[in-house]
């Protein structure tokens, strides 16, 4: 193996230090170590390629550059300077990460996290550089004959192309096998009945006696969704007025795929009498079929139970795997369900037609947007919508953000002075933008995008690797560290890793949306006098009851691929509180 690249080592060190810069959320030591090692290796690779390119150009032009080191003890001085820079970087990183943790109401991380992450980063960096050196040996062997009639840089480039092709073929083979194994495991998990949950007996729930699809066929998430939720009596006690039993429709895909699942859902719509309710919510689940109970219960309380929520499980995989393996199925499912529902409603008399609302959280929001061509199509077809923690790569909100009114920030873009569509990081921004400027009259249909400033899912886009986003320059987020800066490649890795910890924050930060969903739904449903505080307290109390009744915490995966998440209420008239696994 040849000597190590000096330029690569310097650039790798710089990128390693930059990786400790603050991002949206505090990072765990292991994740910080992986980021540090990865970006340092990339920095070394870039520096190595720059040296090779300079060497090839020098040979082509007949130039030769020699550098001699005459400073006595120079390597000792460099080592001391490197250690000093690293110590200063640790100190600055610890200070900024404490500030980030304070802004998102998380406990500060101990100083040993930086030491442990540095050790992990160095170990990973050594492994990656050794692999790179082995690759150089391989390319040298592969291009030995090519150097006779091709310049060195071209021969190495050719070898690199061949290696990439081979790696892609191997990766595709390994990825296919890994995905198959993950799918088998997900199927087993989907068949496991949640602890303490019993099948519903009310006809207003899918999975009840006489339902189109048996309760055992609804899968784990469907069983949780149909078994939980407030009864009419519980809703009436909270809102102080008579209430109805809310309807919950859930369907899963069988061998017939999306088309069959939509048929089952529509059969349940007819069986439960969902079309006779005033409000129907088409809620696209996240990942494994998870539906945000806090959002669903908000609508059930605000409408006094005069509503139906319809959801279809489009996958048994976590959201991250769904997006990588099959990102079109969630969109196709939302499109087919809304179209079928519209066709059914068209058959009803004008004065008996229910209002359709759309909702979804995380990947569910991404999939739910597949039902619409653009924002104008959404405004024309639904009575309102609440999109929660929408991924930054979702096309419709991205187009809306790019067309925002001048002077409005990227995290809460103002669209047509807020006439129909409003982006908020908190409920107070429903009437004024992030800078406190009042919005215009809000007309129906009302569409809300709830996305915390510190939610990495809402901020993540592929171009973070090479382009600074506006939201970093604007620094408009109240729970985002003002020291946040954009760095090529590094920021992409940081935001990617932040998504892994986005479910560890308290509600109101990161990717955790709970209390704010009640006032947001109240605004969408145009109920300014709703007892928001009482509804929030009721939902939180039901979650607390479940937490106490369960041996361990009451959680359900949000489908984002990491962490745990979920809010579930007692079964009410469905057999009492359920200890949900």
Protein described:
With 581 residues, the protein is α/β, with parallel strands linked by helices. The protein folds into 2 domains: 6-142, no CATH class; 192-455 and 502-574, no CATH class. 49% of the residues lie in helices and 7% in strands. The protein has 19 helices and 7 strands. It has helices spanning 6-18, 29-61, 74-103, 112-142, 152-191, 219-227, 232-239, 257-272, 293-302, 319-325, 328-346, 363-368, 375-381, 395-402, 456-459, 470-474, 490-501, 517-524, 532-549, and strands at residues 247-252, 279-284, 307-313, 355-361, 384-388, 421-424, 446-450. The protein has a 7-stranded parallel β-sheet, sandwiched between helices. Strand 2, helix 9 (293-302) and strand 3 (307-313) form a beta-alpha-beta unit. Helix 2 (29-61) packs parallel to helix 4. The radius of gyration is 27 Å and the shape is elongated. The two termini are 54 Å apart. Mean pLDDT is 81; it is low at 549-581.
């Amino acid at each position: 193996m040849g000597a190590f690249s000096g330029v690569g080592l310097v650039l790798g060190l710089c990128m390693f230090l930059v990786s400790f810069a603050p991002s949206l959320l505090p990072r765990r030591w292991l994740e910080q170590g992986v980021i540090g090692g990865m970006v340092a290796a990339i920095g070394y690779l870039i520096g190595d390629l720059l040296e090779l390119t300079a060497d090839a150009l020098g040979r082509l032009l007949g130039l030769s550059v020699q550098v001699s080191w005459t400073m006595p003890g120079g390597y000792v001085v460099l080592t001391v300077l490197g250690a000093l820079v690293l110590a200063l970087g640790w100190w600055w990183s610890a200070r900024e990460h404490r500030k980030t943790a304070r802004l998102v109401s998380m406990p500060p991380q101990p100083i040993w996290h930086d030491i442990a992450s540095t050790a992990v980063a160095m170990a990973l960096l050594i492994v990656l550089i050794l692999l790179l050196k082995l690759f150089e040996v391989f390319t040298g062997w592969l291009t030995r004959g090519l150097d006779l009639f091709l310049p060195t840089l071209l021969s190495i480039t050719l070898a690199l192309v061949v290696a990439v092709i081979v790696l892609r073929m191997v990766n595709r083979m390994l990825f296919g096998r890994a995905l198959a194994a993950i799918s088998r495991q997900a199927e087993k998990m989907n068949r496991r009945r949640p602890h303490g949950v019993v099948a519903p007996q009310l006809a207003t729930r899918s999975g009840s006696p006489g339902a189109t699809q048996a309760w055992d066929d609804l899968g784990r998430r469907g069983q949780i969704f149909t078994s939980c939720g407030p009864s009419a009596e519980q809703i009436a006690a909270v809102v102080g007025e008579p209430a109805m039993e809310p309807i919950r429709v859930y369907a899963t895909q069988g061998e017939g795929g999306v088309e069959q699942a939509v048929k089952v859902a529509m059969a349940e719509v007819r069986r439960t009498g969902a079309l006779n309710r005033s409000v129907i919510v088409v809620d696209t689940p996240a990942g494994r079929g998870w539906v945000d109970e806090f959002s669903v219960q908000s609508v059930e309380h605000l409408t006094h139970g005069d509503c139906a929520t319809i959801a279809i499980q489009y996958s048994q995989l976590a959201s991250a795997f769904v997006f990588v393996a099959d990102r079109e199925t969630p969109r196709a499912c939302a499109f087919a369900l809304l179209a079928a529902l519209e066709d059914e409603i068209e058959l009803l008399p004008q004065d008996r037609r229910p209002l359709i609302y759309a909702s979804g959280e995380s990947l569910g929001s991404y999939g739910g947007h597949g039902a619409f061509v653009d924002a104008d199509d959404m405004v024309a077809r639904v009575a309102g919508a609440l999109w929660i923690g929408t991924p930054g790569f979702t096309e419709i909100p991205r187009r809306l953000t790019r067309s925002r009114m001048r002077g409005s920030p990227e995290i809460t873009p103002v669209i047509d002075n807020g006439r129909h569509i409003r982006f908020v990081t908190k409920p107070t921004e429903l009437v004024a933008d992030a800078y406190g400027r009042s919005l215009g009259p809000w007309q129906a249909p009302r569409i809300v995008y709830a996305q915390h400033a510190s939610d990495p899912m809402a901020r993540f886009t592929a171009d973070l690797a090479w382009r600074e986003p506006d939201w970093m320059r604007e620094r408009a987020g109240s729970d985002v560290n003002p020291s946040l800066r954009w760095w090529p490649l590094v920021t992409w890795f940081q935001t990617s890793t932040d998504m892994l910890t986005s479910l560890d924050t308290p509600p109101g930060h990161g990717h955790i949306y709970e209390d704010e969903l009640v006032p947001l739904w109240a605004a969408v449903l145009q109920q300014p006098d709703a007892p928001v505080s009482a509804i929030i307290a009721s939902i939180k109390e039901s979650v607390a009851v479940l937490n106490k009744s369960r041996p361990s915490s009451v959680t359900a995966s949000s489908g984002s691929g990491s962490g745990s998440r979920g809010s579930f209420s007692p079964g009410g008239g469905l057999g009492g509180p359920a200890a949900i696994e």
